[in-house]
């Protein structure tokens, strides 16, 4: 399930990369994005797993104190396809100066409202990362987004352009495997764990494909970690990449 509604389908009228139907699909979910039992319940369960990986990657990249409560203090962070801010708010609590971008204005409104209620100073912008004048950031994240992108090279090039020298990028996405087709698209959408129409399995990206796409964008991909599920552990980081995975990337 995507946090985002940023896409890579080129629009000749201005070079935008937003796929309108994706923006409409996720914008319709904005009202209950923060409801842990609502349409975005899966993201609420996924977020702690992603944050565990993110914290480990931050400490390794910048060599910080693993016990420090704000390892991103003094650093800027950009979350592309931020939805209603499920990742932006933890990044702000980790000390970053955070910008969130999403194609759906409804999501940005929900994100800004929730941040205000949480007393967090986060800059939210509705629009297309490829056309916005954003500058560069120390940390660039885009979680569960690239599978909703038609022109993946253009999308990753836009992300790479937002990454400051010495910066860190973190991406997560479903893998394109038989298991993901059966469970993430078939079973999860059938039982309502993920809203119907969220995923197109043909748009999923394998780790090998992503490594090549990142290389074309001038980035080197780290070793992926799987996000797996078991009845005993729930969602957890794993060596099993079959369902979903999360990776770091740096300038080559």
Model description:
With 252 residues, the chain is an alpha/beta fold. It has a single domain, classed as 3-Layer(aba) Sandwich (Rossmann fold), CATH 3.40.50.150. Helix content is 33%, strand content 22%. It is built from 7 helices and 9 strands, in the order ααβαβαββαβααββββ. The protein has helices at residues 20-27, 41-62, 88-93, 105-117, 152-161, 178-190, 207-216; strands at residues 76-80, 97-102, 123-126, 137-143, 163-174, 219-221, 225-230, 234-238, 244-251. Strands 1, 2, 3, 4, 5, 6, 7, 8 and 9 form a 9-stranded mixed beta sheet that branches. Helix 3 (88-93) links the parallel strand 1 and strand 2 (97-102). The longest helix has 22 residues, at 41-62. The radius of gyration is 17 Å and the shape is globular. The chain starts with 19 loop residues before the first helix and ends with a strand. Residues 4-16 have low confidence and may be disordered.
Task: Give a quick precis of the structure.
By secondary structure, this protein is an alpha/beta fold. It contains seven helices and nine strands; from the N terminus they run ααβαβαββαβααββββ.
How large a portion of the residues is in β-strands, by DSSP E? Answer: 15-25%
Number of domains: 1
Q: Any low-confidence stretches, pLDDT <50, length ≥5?
A: 4-16
The end-to-end span amounts to: 29 Å
CATH architecture: 3-Layer(aba) Sandwich
Estimated structural class: alpha/beta
Tell me about the largest β-sheet. 9 strands, mixed
CATH superfamily: Vaccinia Virus protein VP39
The CATH topology corresponds to Rossmann fold
What is the CATH class name?
Answer: Alpha Beta
Helix content: 25-40%
């Amino acid at each position: 399930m995507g946090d985002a509604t940023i896409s890579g389908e080129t629009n000749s009228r201005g070079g935008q990369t937003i796929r309108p139907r994706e923006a409409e699909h996720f914008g319709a979910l904005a009202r209950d994005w923060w409801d842990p039992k609502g349409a975005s319940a899966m993201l609420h369960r996924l977020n702690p797993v992603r944050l565990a990986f993110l914290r480990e990657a931050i400490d390794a990249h910048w060599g910080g104190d693993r016990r420090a409560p704000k390892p991103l203090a003094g650093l800027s962070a950009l979350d592309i396809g931020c939805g209603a801010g499920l990742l932006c708010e933890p990044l702000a609590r980790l000390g970053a100066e955070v910008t969130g971008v999403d194609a759906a204005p409804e999501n940005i409104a929900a994100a800004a409202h929730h941040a205000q209620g949480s007393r967090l100073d986060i800059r939210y912008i509705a629009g297309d990362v490829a056309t916005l004048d954003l500058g560069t950031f120390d940390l660039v994240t885009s979680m569960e987004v690239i599978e909703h992108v038609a022109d993946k090279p253009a999308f990753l090039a836009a992300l790479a352009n937002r990454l400051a020298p010495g910066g860190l990028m973190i991406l997560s996405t479903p893998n394109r495997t038989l298991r993901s087709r059966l469970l993430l698209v078939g079973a999860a959408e059938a039982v309502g764990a993920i809203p119907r129409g969220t995923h197109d399995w043909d748009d999923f990206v394998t780790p090998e494909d992503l490594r090549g796409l990142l290389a074309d964008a001038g980035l080197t991909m780290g070793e992926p970690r799987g996000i797996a599920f078991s009845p005993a552990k729930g969602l957890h980081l794993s060596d099993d990449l079959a369902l979903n995975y999360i990776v770091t990337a740096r300038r080559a």
